[in-house]
Write a structure and sequence with these properties.
Layout (H helix, E strand, L loop, with lengths): L6 E5 L5 H10 L5 E5 L11 H17 L4 E4 L2 H6 L1 H7 L3 E3 L2 H12 L4 E5 L1 H6 L1 H9 L5 E5 L2 H7 L6 H11 L9 E4 L8 H8 L5 E3 H15 L22 E4 L3 H12 L6 E5 L4 E5 L1
Parallel strand pairs: 1-2, 1-3, 2-9, 3-4, 5-6, 5-7, 7-8, 9-10
Antiparallel strand pairs: 10-11
Helix pairs in contact: 1-11, 2-4, 5-7, 5-11, 9-10
Length: about 280
């Protein structure tokens, strides 16, 4: 395998950009191809069979573009579709739930773990099940925080509105004294400071995307798949430079605007595509 092939990342929309950032920061010599399925977001309201179909189509699209490893940034797809994805593609697949659960269980050391996620991820019980496999004694408190997604995308993550919403969702968690809190949605790291204020500074916050990035680094090193450092990669690359390719299935202009809010810069290469037909539509 060509070690300089990119790492593929897909999400149901823009939230996976926080996973892209975590991967980029940990693996500056790697380059990435990202797919946001913005035409079919949200996944959380869809049936299991539909989520599996969307996830497999996304995975096959990225595999067809030549990747050495696939990261499923979407928590819903990670919770419900990983077996189908792994059966459909010939590259190693990493989700975000397993790494997040492992990091939380290690840090909590037997204490309670709080998980903040979308309603679909909470209903799936995926984080609770993953943590129970590691340490059955850990009590898991799951909390759906759907308004955090819109606040993140609007750039209001540290606004007074966000603080009020966070207090409404989370203030009672202070009485639970969790040993760790999992940010179980890709949007939630944008509200990290606001969430930390609501639950208390003493509670460690676990970014599932960052945990996944750490595991990807370990996988690449163990499989000897880390990219060779080229002359251009001698210094840390900037986010969203032209070595990283971004695809969306709709609303490219909005994606670019939200990407700039999340990352501080818009994608240099952004294309609208139809993943179900692999037909590239337009370059922005």
């Amino acid at each position: 395998m060509d070690l300089n092939l990119p790492i593929g990342i897909f999400d149901s929309g823009v939230g996976g950009l926080t996973v892209y950032r975590a991967l980029h920061e940990r693996l500056p010599n790697e380059h990435f191809v990202y797919l946001g399925d913005t035409a079919r977001v949200p996944y959380g309201t869809k049936s299991l069979s539909t989520i599996e179909r969307y996830a497999v189509e996304n995975a096959k699209f990225l595999e067809a573009h030549g990747i050495k490893l696939l990261v499923v940034a979407c928590n819903t797809a990670s919770a419900l579709a990983l077996p189908a994805i792994r059966a459909a593609v010939g590259v190693t697949v990493v989700g975000v739930i397993g790494p997040g659960a492992r990091a939380a269980a290690k840090i909590a050391a037997g204490k309670k773990v709080a998980v903040l996620a979308t309603e679909a991820t909470v209903q799936s019980g995926a984080y609770a099940a993953a943590i129970a496999r590691i340490d059955p004694s850990i009590q898991v408190i799951e909390r759906a925080c759907p308004l955090f997604v819109a606040l993140a995308e609007e750039g209001w993550g540290e606004s007074e509105v966000a603080r009020a919403v966070a207090q409404e969702y989370l203030s009672d968690l202070r009485n639970e004294h969790p040993g760790a809190l999992v940010l179980g949605c890709t949007h939630y790291p944008i509200l990290r400071e606001t969430i930390g204020e609501a639950v208390g500074a003493e509670v460690p916050l676990i970014d599932s995307g960052a945990a996944a990035a750490a595991e990807v680094q370990t996988l690449l090193e163990s499989k000897q798949l880390s990219a060779k450092q080229s002359e251009r990669d001698a210094h840390e690359r900037e986010l969203c430079d032209d070595l990283d390719h971004f695809y969306v299935t709709d609303a490219a202009e909005r994606f670019a605007k939200v990407a700039e809010r999340f990352l501080g810069t818009a994608p240099a290469v952004l294309e609208a595509v139809e993943v179900w037909g692999h037909d590239e539509l337009k370059t922005y």
